[in-house]
Amino acid sequence: MAKTRMGRAVVLQAVFGFAVPKTRRGPKRSKDSRVAHGSREEMKGGVAHVTIKLKRGFRSLRKKEEMAVLRGAIARVNQGELVRIVEFSVMSNHVHLIVEAENSGDLSKGMASLNTGLGLNRLWD
């Protein structure tokens, strides 16, 4: 049995005999999160599309210094053996990446390496 709320069909868990959680479990989402994020399917070798987005209030990523930092970070990640960033597109407040990885764990570690190696905080002080 399904109810409709704001144009979406909502399946009631009680119909299937599961307990209905009173609060949402998992990490809190920020107020500016505009997209519902689900879990990524288990990856077993292949290509993934990854988006990295900035919070509001930062300079554009398309400026000369920011582009240099991004290119350097991507080059460092590609020297490792976990992931390979095949293509990327830089927008003013986010970056789209096409990434090859053997599995979800490698993808996660590679993207964590990219995020920590960006160095944009040092650039923006």
Q: Main attributes?
A:
globular, alpha+beta, transposase activity, Alpha-Beta Plaits, Transposase IS200 like protein, 125 residues, Transposase_17_sf, Transposase_17, DNA binding
Topology:
Blueprint: E1 2-5, E2 8-11, E3 44-53, H1 64-79, E4 83-90, E5 94-103, H2 104-117, H3 120-124
Antiparallel strand pairs: 1-2, 3-5, 4-5
Give the structural class.
Answer: alpha+beta
CATH topology of the domain at 46-123: Alpha-Beta Plaits
Largest sheet: 3 strands, antiparallel
Q: Biggest sheet, strands in spatial order?
A: 3-5-4
CATH architecture of the domain at 46-123: 2-Layer Sandwich
Uncertain ranges = 11-18
| Proportion of residues in β-strands | 25-35%
Tally of strands: 5
Share of helical residues: 25-40%
**H and E order:** EEEHEEHH
Shape annotation: globular
Mean pLDDT: 76
Task: From the alpha carbons, calculate the radius of gyration and give it in angstroms.
Answer: 19 Å
What gap, in angstroms, lies between the N and C termini? 54 Å
Question: Count of helices?
Answer: 3
The CATH class of the domain at 46-123 is identified as Alpha Beta
Q: Which homologous superfamily in CATH is the superfamily of the domain at 46-123?
A: Transposase IS200-like
Protein name: Transposase IS200 like protein
Region (Disordered): 23-42
Biased composition (Basic and acidic residues): 29-42
Organism: Saltatorellus ferox
